[in-house]
Write a structure and sequence with these properties.
The complex is a heterodimer of chains A (241) and B (297).
Chain A: E1 2-11, E2 14-24, E3 29-34, H1 40-47, E4 53-63, E5 66-69, H2 75-80, E6 83-86, H3 98-105, H4 112-125, H5 127-131, H6 142-154, E7 160-164, H7 172-187, E8 191-196, H8 199-205, E9 208-213, E10 216-222, H9 223-228, H10 230-236
Parallel strand pairs in A: 3-8, 3-9, 6-7, 7-8
Antiparallel strand pairs in A: 1-2, 1-4, 4-5, 9-10
Chain B: H1 3-33, H2 42-57, H3 62-85, H4 93-115, E1 120-121, H5 126-129, E2 131-134, E3 137-140, H6 141-163, H7 165-175, H8 177-182, H9 187-213, E4 215-216, H10 222-235, H11 240-260, H12 269-283
Antiparallel strand pairs in B: 1-4, 2-3
Helix pairs in contact in B: 1-6, 1-7, 1-9, 1-10, 1-11, 2-3, 2-9, 3-9, 6-7, 6-9, 7-9, 10-11, 10-12, 11-12
């Protein structure tokens, strides 16, 4: 579905990604793990067209032989293609209500009836959001805010959901709930690219994973294989070989 | 309430309405691009002269003139944004400030060259100048028109920002730029809409200002623009409600200073206005309704 080919991205004068190759297939959860500063968020920002691509390609396969180059689009056009990001640190519209946040997730959509149905579905998926629909997003707890951030992204009806550090800053219990939710959404057919520092949790639910180290992919494989890999265990899971 | 205080109250509300109309634009624009548009006050002059030009043809009814003034203001705002502000996006904030200052100088001096510095008389129709008795006080009809039309525009703006997709996008953009881009909000178009609405309001304030005070010249926008900026800071820059609140507080305070201080001090009304600003900022650095905010280039 999504292919990154020899992707080179710079932030200012610093080259952050040195030509990475990565693929997300339809229906998968693909995890991108690595240390702080390895370039994980940069990768997602490049896909969402928040950063210019200096080299290589980002291609979105729409099926039936049609494909689109995301690396020449504006952020709004990428969203219109169905590639939607749930950013690091949640980035909610804190002064707006829960309902307004959800409606802004559906900003590019014109199918009012379907948007209404999706709103109802979000209240089912995350009952707390339904209860607090008229409360400001900034007044929610950290875990509730994360649910709202995911729900807001889902309101765009993503073909591919980019999740940046969904576990960041949450209590362990809440982390478990968020990962259960991610897995449940995936079973319903949402394809995901998941960026995580919590490598253990990410590898456990990922179909496949890539390890990013200072802007290069150093390893890839199924989630299970990487969980067993001695190098990965030592470097990212804090476990012995 | 004695007639005197009611009279002062109405004067304060009238002046406050004008400040509020201008301050709204300051705040909307600042909220979205984090930039104080120093040329904003000059749109009052643009609105006043547009009114004068259209009214002197004698061809149009006043409602049509008002509509055309709103449109002219909106188009001027869009032009300012395109020419002077969009190219500066991403540059250090101070560059944008200087650019808007330059626009202000160009507009004012362009006005002086084209229209001359000679003040022009500006007359609303007879009926607007008639006096209306409210209880023990009597006010010019134009004052009620100013207060009424300001309230109407505020209600319309409120419905727009709360109830429409573009209005929601505007608030989203003011709240979190990154998230707004990630939701697919068209940033350029939304910024343009904020400039259009804010500038239309300022131009409309020019129509009212000319009609109320009877004389206009190309530099007429400077002082009200500065006061509206103060109103906007008092209310909390970036908050539309704060701008309206600040406008009315400032209008009422200014009238009160003049009305209640011994006459020898009334010449210092502006000093009192700015002293109020300093006092508010010492106690509430973000203004009455403002919030601390993210940095944005």
């Amino acid at each position: 579905m999504l292919t990154l080919a020899e992707l080179v991205v710079e932030r200012g004068a610093t080259r952050v990604l040195h030509g990475i190759d990565l693929e997300v297939r339809s229906g998968e959860i693909v995890a991108l793990i690595g240390a702080n500063g390895a370039g994980k968020t940069t990768t997602l920002h490049a896909i969402s067209a928040l950063l210019p691509v200096r080299g290589g390609r980002i291609t979105l396969d729409l099926g039936e032989g049609t494909a689109k180059r995301l690396d020449r689009m504006s952020p709004a056009e990428v969203v219109a293609c169905g590639v939607v990001q749930c950013p690091e640190g949640r980035q909610l519209f804190a002064s707006l209500t829960v309902l307004e946040n959800l409606l802004l997730g559906a900003y590019r959509r014109d199918d009012r009836e379907a948007v209404k149905r999706d709103l109802a579905r979000m209240s089912e998926l995350f009952p707390v959001l339904g209860e607090r629909r008229n409360q400001s997003a900034g007044s929610l707890s950290g875990g509730e805010q994360m649910m709202l951030a995911i729900a807001r992204a889902l309101m765009a009806r993503p073909r591919l959901l980019l999740l940046d550090e969904p576990s960041l800053g949450l209590a362990p219990q809440m982390v478990d709930r968020i990962f259960e939710t991610i897995l449940a959404l995936n079973r319903e057919g949402v394809t995901m690219l998941l960026v995580e520092q919590n490598a253990l949790a990410a590898l456990e639910i990922a179909d496949r994973a890539y390890v990013l180290e200072t802007g290069r992919i150093v390893q890839s494989g199924t989630g299970a294989a990487l969980l067993d890999d001695p190098a990965v265990r030592a470097a990212y899971l804090g476990l012995g070989a | 309430m004695s007639a005197y205080y009611l009279q002062q109250l109405l004067n304060g509300l009238m002046l406050g309405s004008l400040y509020a109309l201008i301050a709204i634009g300051f705040s909307m624009i600042y909220g979205i691009v984090r930039l104080i548009n120093f040329a904003h006050g000059d749109l009052l002059m643009v609105g006043a002269f547009t009114t004068l030009g259209l009214a002197s043809t004698g061809l149009l009814p006043w409602w049509a003139i008002a509509l055309l003034v709103l449109v002219t203001g909106a188009l001027s705002g869009i032009t300012i944004e395109r020419v002077a502000i969009r190219p500066m996006r991403g540059a250090p904030q101070v560059t944008g400030f200087i650019a808007t200052l330059a626009v202000s100088v160009v507009i004012e001096n362009g006005g002086l060259i084209l229209l001359s510095g000679q003040p022009r008389t500006f007359l609303f129709p007879e009926i607007m100048r008639s006096r209306v008795t409210i209880g023990p006080a009597s006010v010019a009809a134009v004052d009620l028109v100013i207060i009424g039309s300001t309230l109407l525009l505020c209600v319309l703006l409120l419905l727009f920002v709360r109830g429409t997709r573009m209005g929601r996008a505007m608030r989203a953009l003011a709240d979190n730029l990154l998230a707004a881009r990630l939701m697919g909000i068209d940033v350029d178009r939304t910024i343009m809409a904020a400039f259009a609405i804010g500038s239309a309001f300022a131009a409309f304030a020019g129509l009212l200002w000319g009609g109320r005070f009877g004389q206009i010249d190309p530099l007429i926008g400077f002082a009200p623009g500065l006061k509206a900026f103060v109103a906007c800071v008092i209310g909390g820059v970036g908050s539309i409600g704060g701008a309206v609140l600040g406008g009315y507080l400032l209008g009422l305070a200014e009238v009160m200073f003049v009305g209640m201080l011994p006459p020898i001090y009334s010449g210092y009304r502006d000093a009192f206005v700015f002293a109020t600003l300093i006092l508010v900022l010492l106690l509430m650095p973000n203004g009455l309704l403002g919030r601390p905010e993210e940095d944005r280039a």
